[in-house]
Amino acid sequence: MLTEEMTHLCGEIVAMRTRRGELLKTLENDSKERREAVSDLCRQFHKARVGMARRMHHDRVSFLRNLRHGVNVQRRELRSDLAGVRKVWAGKAA
Asked: How far apart are the C-alpha atoms of 37 and 25, rounded to whole Å?
């Protein structure tokens, strides 16, 4: 009777060791998969951030180019208006 119980306990211990080993391997695999998923997600974030930075840079450059053009147009118009005013004040108007 004692021998049977000892044999049974030994079998349970071996089974638990086997399950523990399987659990550790499962945890190891899950950890590896999670690490790869996080790495992939970080890569996607980096790619998205780089693309967004390029678009924002392009938008800023385009905005500044349009702003400079608009300011230059207004400066030319103002210069032309002032030249016309000077002519009128000098009595050279047609």
From this structure: 18
pLDDT, tens only, 60-76: 999 999 999 999 999 99
Going from the C-alpha of 20 to that of each of 14, 23, 30, 51, the distances in angstroms are: 10, 5, 15, 46
Q: Which of 26, 47, 65 is nearest to 39 (CA)?
A: 47
Tens digits of per-residue pLDDT, 29-60? 999 999 999 999 999 999 999 999 999 999 99
How many whole angstroms separate alpha carbon 14 and alpha carbon 17? 5
Residue 58's contacts (CB-CB under 8 Å, 6 or more residues apart) are: none
Question: How far apart are alpha carbons 82 and 39 in whole angstroms?
Answer: 63
Q: What is the pTM of this model?
A: 0.57
